[in-house]
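Reading a protein record of the kind used here takes only a little practice. Each token is a code from a learned vocabulary of local backbone shapes. With that in mind, consider the following protein and its fold in token form:
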Amino acid sequence: MIRVGSQLAFCSPNTILQRMVVELDDQHCIERIFSLDDGNVESAETLFYDGILSSGIVSLKQNISGESISKLINGYQYIDFSEHLFTLDIKLNDKPLIIDLGTDLPDKINNLLPRLSFGMPSLSVFEIIAACTFYPALLIGRSPGLIEDQCIKLILWENVDLINKKITINTRIREMNR
């Protein structure tokens, strides 16, 4: 079992919890999510980190064919960020945003994050997390977000500007399941 605590936990675009601990079993399934502010919680053996916990990055390109992506993204605003060699600031519309980083490997994603911070400065960190984790998982039929009894890759988003709710050129992700 591993317990990981942080300032924020991104459970869904509408559920961002403060001062939370995610408890994973040996198969990386969430046993519980609980608040550090509850008086009846034992926080021993909990690893505490600065940042935001979320479920893992999901790349549509890694999970389905390009032809299938075209058919599935009808109701979404899709950006294949692994293909863009330039910066762009998108204008959000009423469709959920999906940012495809082309990989789920932390080292490769960490190389893309500084470009993402410059390329999409108007997006909040929560919009970016939802676009990289929640909406792509939902689209391919995986359980999105942080939900009890779900097996996931737990990700920590570090070096985030929590005051302004923005990623920075120093923002990195780290898998917490190891």
